[in-house]
């Protein structure tokens, strides 16, 4: 296996070169669970945030890269690390488009809206729900304040990088959804566009078309 093949297997990274447009695009995938400071089980498909950060830094610094396409299909994961990735994506001063294929749940929502333009597949979903922690949770005021702090960080980021406002986001986050004993809102395809969390319904063709147009501009 060559070096490029290894990078696809290990990082989901691929360089796309358009001979017609003359553009060099970095394709990057965010798949499975966002793994952060704690390691997930070997049976869990993860995207390691410490792998993505240097790749995103390289995308900004390399003058040969004209734009970035990020494919997203994630169930969420570590909130702190997911927000770090989202901030990194948002700080790239080149055209960036995200394509949601499958799901963009929980901390995947900030990742999706961090780009300049967000495309969602017709059957793809976005889920907004309150912050959760695994394991034992101490029911003390400090714990709830900590939860509230994280939720406010997430909502603020989403509001600043989408067409959705804070009041609506909080309502969706605390809405009693269709999942038993759960809170949150599930948005499918065009519903995410109508809510202001995505810009268009489409796929890879629409994502690349937008990217090429912005690079030309």
Structure in a nutshell:
With 217 residues, the chain is an alpha/beta fold. 40% of the residues lie in helices and 26% in strands. It has 8 helices and 9 strands.
Keywords for this structure?
nine-stranded mixed sheet; 8 helices; alpha/beta; disordered N terminus; about 220 residues; about 40% helix
Please give the structural blueprint.
Layout: H1 3-11, E1 13-18, E2 23-35, E3 46-48, H2 49-61, E4 67-77, H3 79-90, E5 96-105, H4 108-113, E6 117-120, E7 125-128, H5 141-160, H6 166-173, E8 185-188, H7 190-194, E9 200-201, H8 204-216
Parallel strand pairs: 2-3, 2-4, 4-5, 5-6, 5-7, 6-9
Antiparallel strand pairs: 1-2, 7-8
Extract low-pLDDT stretches: 1-6
**N→C terminal distance:** 37 Å
Structural class: alpha/beta
**Overall pLDDT, averaged?**
82
Anisotropy-based shape:
globular
The helix count comes to 8
- How many strand segments? 9
* Cα-based radius of gyration, to the nearest Å: 17 Å
Taking the sheet with the most strands, its summary is:
9 strands, mixed
- Assign a percent range to the helix content: 25-40%
Order of helices and strands: HEEEHEHEHEEHHEHEH
Strand content: 25-35%
Kindly describe this structure.
With 217 residues, this protein is of the alpha/beta class. The chain is 40% helix and 26% strand. The chain is built from 8 helices and 9 strands. Strands 1, 2, 3, 4, 5, 6, 7, 8 and 9 form a 9-stranded mixed β-sheet that branches. Strand 1 and strand 2 form a beta hairpin. Helix 2 runs parallel beside helix 3. The radius of gyration is 17 Å and the shape is globular.
């Amino acid at each position: 296996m060559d070096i490029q093949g290894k990078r696809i297997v290990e990082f989901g990274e691929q360089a796309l070169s358009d001979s017609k447009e003359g553009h060099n695009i970095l394709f990057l995938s965010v798949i499975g669970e966002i793994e952060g400071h704690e390691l997930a089980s070997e049976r869990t498909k993860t995207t390691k945030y410490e792998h993505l950060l240097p790749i995103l830094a390289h995308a900004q610094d390399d003058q040969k890269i004209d734009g970035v396409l990020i494919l997203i299909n994630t169930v969420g994961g570590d909130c702190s690390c997911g927000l770090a990735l989202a901030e990194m994506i948002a700080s790239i001063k080149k055209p960036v488009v995200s394509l949601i294929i499958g799901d963009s749940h929980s901390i995947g929502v900030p990742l999706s809206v961090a780009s300049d333009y967000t495309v969602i597949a017709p059957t793809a979903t976005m889920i907004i729900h309150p912050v959760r922690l695994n394991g034992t949770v101490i029911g003390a005021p400090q714990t709830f304040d900590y939860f509230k702090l994280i939720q406010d960080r997430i909502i603020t980021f989403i509001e600043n990088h989408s067409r959705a406002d804070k009041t609506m986001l909080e309502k969706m986050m605390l809405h009693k959804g269709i999942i038993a004993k759960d809170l949150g809102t599930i948005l499918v395809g065009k519903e995410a566009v109508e809510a202001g969390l995505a810009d268009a319904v489409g796929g890879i063709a629409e994502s690349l078309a937008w990217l090429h147009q912005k690079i030309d501009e």
